[in-house]
Amino acid sequence: MTQVPGNGGPRPRYITPEGERALRDELQYLWKVKRPEVTQAVREAAALGDRSENAEYIYGKKQLREIDRRVRFLSKRLEELTVVDRLPDDRDKVFFGAWVTVEDEDGEEQTYRLVGADEFDLSKGYLSINSPLARALIGKRLDDEVSVRTPEGWKSVFVVGIRYQAPADDK
């Protein structure tokens, strides 16, 4: 497993296997399902005549442009990403893909999974590897203290849990 560099240089483009699968599923859905549906709707709207005042036709063409833009982005992005599909040798340290539980000075605990920028979702506890907290956590062990600058000032947390889930063997 590659350790994420601390500062400088381009940001790493890591993604978990689950994140890659989600992006590939979205690409497949847009290309094989959504785009043909919208294309058919545009074809039907165009058959109705005057396209300049045909709201369905205009909206459909706009939808197609948005779908095509997203398809281009996903296709290019998937080529640039590095899938991290193995556990680190030292599982006592925080690396990409880890579930990390931190405790703040008030005793409040939060658990985050360090994931790629394309898959972060704080509602699921997925924290972007490029975030200040995630960058500060990389390489830390249980009971290590981490300080991060926030808009409210410096915040310190302690690492109280580190776990990794084994990659799914569905390849």
Broad shape: elongated
**Average pLDDT rating:** 89
- The Rg value, from CA coordinates, equals 22 Å
How do the strands line up in the largest sheet?
Answer: 5-4-3-7-6
Strand coverage percent: 15-25%
Query: What's the CATH H-level superfamily name of the largest domain?
Result: Transcription elongation factor, GreA/GreB, N-terminal domain
Query: Please, how many helices?
Result: 3
Element order: H for helix, E for strand: EHHEEEEHEE
Explain what you see.
Residues 91-164 form the Transcription elongation factor GreA/GreB C-terminal domain. Pfam families: GreA_GreB (PF01272), GreA_GreB_N (PF03449). InterPro entries: GreA/GreB_C_sf, TF_GreA/GreB_CS, Tscrpt_elong_fac_GreA/B, Tscrpt_elong_fac_GreA/B_C, Tscrpt_elong_fac_GreA/B_fam, Tscrpt_elong_fac_GreA/B_N, Tscrpt_elong_fac_GreA/B_N_sf, Tscrpt_elong_fac_GreB. Residues 14-83 form the Transcription elongation factor GreA/GreB N-terminal domain. Keywords: DNA-binding, Elongation factor, Protein biosynthesis, Transcription, Transcription regulation. With 171 residues, the chain is of the alpha/beta class. The chain folds into 2 domains: 13-83, Transcription elongation factor, GreA/GreB, N-terminal domain (Helix Hairpins, Orthogonal Bundle), CATH 1.10.287.180; 93-163, Chitinase A, domain 3, CATH 3.10.50.30. It is 36% helix and 22% strand. The protein is built from 3 helices and 7 strands, in the order βααββββαββ. It has helices spanning 17-46, 55-80, 132-137, and strands spanning 14-15, 82-83, 99-104, 109-115, 126-128, 145-150, 153-163. The strands form 2 sheets. The chain has a 5-stranded mixed beta sheet with strand order 5-4-3-7-6. It has a two-stranded parallel ribbon with strand order 1-2. β3 (99-104) and β4 form a beta hairpin. α1 runs antiparallel to α2. The longest helix is centred in the first third of the chain and has 30 residues, at 17-46. The radius of gyration is 22 Å and the shape is elongated. The two termini are 19 Å apart. The relative contact order is 0.17. Residues 1-8 have low confidence and may be disordered.
